[in-house]
Design goal:
The protein has about 150 residues and is of the alpha/beta class. Helices cover about 35% and strands about 10% of the residues.
Length: about 150
């Protein structure tokens, strides 16, 4: 309220006004295929979609390619693929790899290991050790996934 930010109660209304939509969710039965034809049609024309979660959140990669080619989506960025490794006949993968359809800069694929660094490995190991110690001591664990 202080910053004048409006809260939306449903994703449909949010998609209509968002310039950038970033998907950062675990893959569950509820989120599998979340990005489908209906989702993409609700997105604001000229917006960007970023999937940093899991590949199967996208129902069909051809929908992404078609949204880019029709200029409904201005850009798509991902570090995951619906099927890994991508199949040889995957049109979106081919368009990216061979720079077809003049998608330069509009289709960005980054390795899912983008976090990888000496510092990230050190942090993940120390956090794992701290969690093990908490379990041994019977203390409450942070970031527990049920």
């Amino acid at each position: 309220k202080v910053f004048g930010i409006k809260r939306y109660d449903n994703i449909s209304d949010l998609l209509k006004i968002s310039d950038i939509v970033s998907i950062n969710t675990p893959l569950t039965e509820e989120t599998k295929g979340l990005i489908n034809q209906s989702f993409l049609k609700k997105m604001k024309k000229g917006s960007y979609l970023i999937n940093l979660s899991r590949g199967p959140i996208v129902e069909n990669k051809d929908l992404i390619l078609n949204s880019l080619l029709s200029n409904h989506l201005e850009g798509y960025g991902t570090d995951v693929w619906t099927e890994e490794p991508p199949s040889r006949d995957d049109k979106l993968y081919i368009a990216w790899k061979e720079n077809k359809h003049d998608l330069q800069g509009r289709l960005i694929v980054n390795p899912h290991t983008a976090y990888y660094s000496k510092e990230a490995l050190e942090e993940s190991r120390s956090k794992a050790c701290a969690t093990c110690l908490k379990i041994i001591k019977g203390e409450k664990i942070i970031n527990r996934i049920l």
